[in-house]
Design brief:
Blueprint (H helix, E strand, L loop, with lengths): L12 H20 L1 H4 L2 H14 L4 H13 L1 H19 L18 E2 L6 E5 L4 E7 L10 E9 L10 E8 L2 E8 L4 E8 L8 E8 L8 E12 L4 E3 L7 E5 L2 E5 L13 E3 L6
Parallel strand pairs: 6-12
Antiparallel strand pairs: 1-9, 2-9, 3-8, 4-7, 4-9, 5-6, 5-8, 10-13, 11-12
Amino acid sequence: MACSKVPDGILKEKDMQSVMVDMYLAEAMIGADYATYQGDEKKDAMYQSVFRKHNISQAEYDSSIIWYGKNLKIYMEVYDGVLAEIESRTKALGDVQANAGPASARDSLNIWPRRNFAFLEGNKGSLITYNVKPDVAYASGSTFVFSMNVWGVKANMKHTPEVRLSLVQNDTTINITRKLTHDGYYQVLLRSVPVKQVQQVYGYIRMLNADSTCYKVYIDSISLMKYNYGTVVTIAEDSIPGKSLKGNSLKMDSVKTDSMIKKQPLTVKSNAIKN
């Protein structure tokens, strides 16, 4: 990145890298203290503090995100630097998940236990697992939504990335497995069985060792939201390709794909029944 390829009015590569690092750290702080930052106003104040630190406006940041989103090769070079910087800051701690998931009965709770970004390398094979066991079981009928931004998927890849979300409810296990076949914003929704509490939420993000070609797929904005029973959570009709039932294991696939820049949140209407 010695010679900048970025036009005027767009954050240069090194500046963009610095801003992105702080934005990821801001998101991590928000995720770690959801009770404090559950309101949009406080979240926005956190993001605005990042903009002030770097002496930029949100409009400049948004314009830069859009430009980099259209120039993925340069974006990936910047993102490599972001990953390296965050890795150096967190090397002592590593990507260690909490021993137990949040036990709060609060609605709209992000229970994702790891960092909210990752990258997968096809020539090595990559696997990121998660396992959330709340101290107090989540209420029956809870809905879970696994979301992430994905880019770097190539049309000629033999094996594209895959995600799985599983719920354990006594003697019943519910699974979603979904291939990430192209760049975009994915949302995978799974509703638990209404009459059984959820003792465990687990799964993975993986990319198998396809061939000798070095493919890199980047994932960020990872979240795993838990919504209480009675909260209406919907995704677009075309994001639900099908479902099948086999034994006591229900396997449903649902995904929402969109621009990696313009994420479209789920429709959530809170009529939650407290359990």
